[in-house]
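okkk here we go again. third time trying to get the zinc ion bound version out, last two times i messed up the smiles copy paste (missing a bracket lol). double checked this time i swear
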Amino acid sequence: MNKTLKTNIKEAKLAIKNAEYIIIGGGSGLSSAAGVEYSGKRFTENFSPFIKKYGLTDMYSSGFYPFPTQEERWAYWAKHIYVNRFELGATNLYKDLFQLVKEKEYFVITTNVDSQFEKSGFPNEKVFEVQGNYGYLQCAKRCHDNVYYNETLVREMIDQTEDCKIPSNLVPKCPICGGNMDPHLRINENFVQNEEWYQSHQLYNQFLQNTEGKKIAFLEMGVGFNTPGIIRYPFEQMTYQNNHATLIRFNRAHPVGIKENKDKTIVFMQDIQDIVSAIMT
Ligand SMILES: [Zn+2]
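finally!!
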């Protein structure tokens, strides 16, 4: 281990130890680092009939594939939701993260939709899932603001999938308008922000208010540039505004932030699991 990395780990450890408040920002890179990968073997092993039939290349782009019928679309999505949300238990990296912060005052904001934080012990009321969750459906037109837990339906769809199609009677329809349903994910402007979403948002804002001027450590983990306005920019701004804040950034692709925060930022470009393990020892 080189000297800079050693120093960075020591400093991150100290910042977390001394922090009165910890805020974790979890992006897609965090789940990939935890093993929830959307391409490679995990994709080819689970989706071979779909790859053969539609030429799909990975789970990210497949989410946007224009399946010709709802029966085909839901055959794909049931599998996608199942492998990422229901089949998978808590991963080691998320479990480690929970051990790292569980004795502290903390809050999680995440763009991830796979429930890994909850599965690993983080209580619901401390996790704000901004972009939705695989485990729910919503009306595609957002004619109303309910979301519907989909585990039973998803399992049934998988059991009854034949030739990349589910039977028509399993295609979910909106109980109010009778139209198509979508997974509860922010894929367009019709994303449902229900009461629970607003409650979560409020809890997060309250937590942020309590941290003003306090010793705080921001753990920005695997946050890309798809939606920088949700985690990356606010974390940079709050770090800038608070003299007692430290921003601990885990980011391979975009490590450099605003220059004003240079002395308050610790950057890791290495494997997230390796660094978290090192911080914990
Ligand atoms: Zn509807």
